[in-house]
Write a structure and sequence with these properties.
PH-like_dom_sf; 15 helices; two-stranded antiparallel ribbon; seven-stranded antiparallel β-sheet; alpha+beta
């Protein structure tokens, strides 16, 4: 009997026998998962991370096998990861980390102020792990930036700087890794040996980023569909979180661009399907999940320039060879983002006084096109309502400048998100996948209306013209007033 069949049999039998029977069944299953009794390491997370009461009971019982008393948070997480593989759906992995955070707080109630605080730090370590050890663009996050990112999220206060420095150094010196089944190790080892023998590129890099992050890994799928390709000149205007790119790194560079799956690959040579991606190709690649492309109406130095704002608030400019090509890229990028972007996670857990953007998973959505449209429509309604409520309570003139900055930053964010989801909803209503499969630089007939759809108008809101660094990530940052027109330089 397979492990899934065993679980279903135990679950169905226990749920019909009342709460005490459920607990006993959960204890039995948790023990077998911990001892890997007819289960593999890769089976554990999916049984702990399901969104039902029995799975929660199993997770609680499973975590009881771990005593984190007296251990630091990073030591506990490494100890926890030695027992199983953190694989599965993004939401399932997130729930597993919630259970871990609850258990750590139970074992160490005086170390960190709350369970929310533990979970916030756990997520922060996972994100830091990807930043320091992944194939991401630009410089690595510094300790000071890591500390600034977590300002004000510990029940309205700040985590101890000594604690954050210790966590940062731990992740920097040794990346987080979880256990892997023996057969997976042998499989990956043999694949690498075979590929080297055949003279092909080993599959050591299967993702853009790092598989050690369950939230933000960008999948590199060699079998993904190619939706558009052609030459583009690229200029990086803003780095992650809208931080202005240093002048020496803003120059225009020409690439052969390939929109393949949810990734825009930028290669120095023309695309060849049989050619393996180099490290440089992966560093230049841009994920378009939760992104928005538009005409760069605020950039006047070159013609046919589009602006791409990514999920992590980087801003890139691309110059196409003609107005039709520019519109074609805008259409295809936005359509890919609308069709494949998975629903976002809630904003970071912590003080509601401090605004922080929600995590936007890079994994491809599992929803059908109809469900995806409903999800986008629901998010659009939520954002629209939140924006209206936000603007109905402007800050008093007597409040501190920092609070005014927080208000403006959130306003800019909500305005942009409203524009983005309006675009996604419209594209899905016009055909979604069918539009992606259409050929031609300008896209399908329905897509040609993009220029009249909600666009990034610099006069309407500063966030759509110049993305600002998240206030929670820079102490001295103050957004400019909406009346100031900003231009990309």
């Amino acid at each position: 009997m397979g492990s899934t069949e065993i679980l279903e049999k135990e679950t169905s039998g226990s749920l019909s026998n009342g709460t005490s029977s459920n607990v006993e069944a959960a204890k039995r299953l948790a023990k077998r998962l911990y001892q890997l009794d007819r289960f593999k390491r890769s089976d554990v997370a999916k049984h702990l991370g399901k969104n039902n009461e029995f799975s929660k009971l199993v997770a609680e019982e499973y975590l009881k096998f771990f005593d984190f008393t007296g251990m630091t948070l990073d030591q506990s997480l490494r100890y926890f990861f030695k027992a199983f593989s953190l694989v599965g759906e993004t939401q399932e992995r997130e729930r597993v980390l919630v259970h871990f955070s609850n258990r750590y707080f139970y074992c160490n109630p005086d170390t960190i102020a709350s369970q929310d605080g533990v979970h916030c730090l756990t997520c922060a370590m996972m994100l830091l792990n990807t930043d320091l050890h992944g194939h991401n663009i630009g410089k690595k996050m510094t300790c000071q930036e890591f500390i600034a990112n977590l300002q004000g999220v510990d029940e309205g206060g700040d985590f101890s700087k000594d604690l954050l420095k210790a966590l940062y150094n731990s992740i920097k010196n040794e990346k987080l890794e979880w256990a892997v089944d023996d057969e997976e190790k042998k499989k990956s080892s043999s694949e690498g040996t075979d590929e080297k023998a055949n003279g092909t590129h080993p599959k050591t890099i299967s993702r853009i980023g790092s598989t050690t992050n369950p939230f933000l890994d960008i999948p590199h799928d060699p079998n993904a569909a190619v939706y558009k390709s052609g030459f583009l000149a690229r200029k990086i205007h803003a780095d992650m979180d809208g931080k202005k790119t240093p002048r020496g790194k803003r120059g225009w560079k020409t690439f052969y661009a390939v929109l393949k799956g949810t990734v825009l690959y930028l290669q120095k040579d023309e695309y060849k399907p049989e050619k393996a991606l180099s490290e440089e190709d992966l560093k230049n690649a841009v994920s378009v999940h939760h992104a928005l492309a538009s005409r760069a109406t605020d950039y006047e130095k070159k013609p046919n320039v589009l602006k791409l704002k990514t999920a992590d608030w980087r801003v890139l400019l691309f110059q196409a060879q003609s107005p039709e090509e520019m519109q074609g890229w805008i259409n295809k990028i936005n359509c890919v983002a609308a069709v494949f972007s998975a629903p976002p996670f809630p904003a970071a857990i912590g003080s509601q006084k401090k605004f922080s953007r929600p995590l936007l998973p890079a994994t491809t959505t599992k929803l059908s096109q109809e469900e995806q449209l409903k999800s986008h429509e629901s998010k659009l309604r939520q954002i629209t309502t939140e924006l209206a409520e936000h603007r109905s309570y402007p800050p008093d003139k007597k409040v501190k400048a920092k609070e005014v900055d927080e208000y403006k930053l959130k306003d800019h964010y909500l305005e942009f998100e409203k524009t983005r989801y309006e675009m996604y909803v419209r594209l899905l209503k016009e055909g979604g996948l069918e539009l992606l499969s259409s050929s031609g630089g300008g896209g399908a007939a329905g897509l040609k209306k993009s220029h009249s759809s909600p666009s990034l108008n610099p006069d309407a809101s500063p966030v759509t013209a110049k993305v600002k660094r998240n206030v929670s990530e820079r102490k001295d940052h103050r957004p400019e007033t909406p009346s100031i027109k900003q231009k990309v330089t």
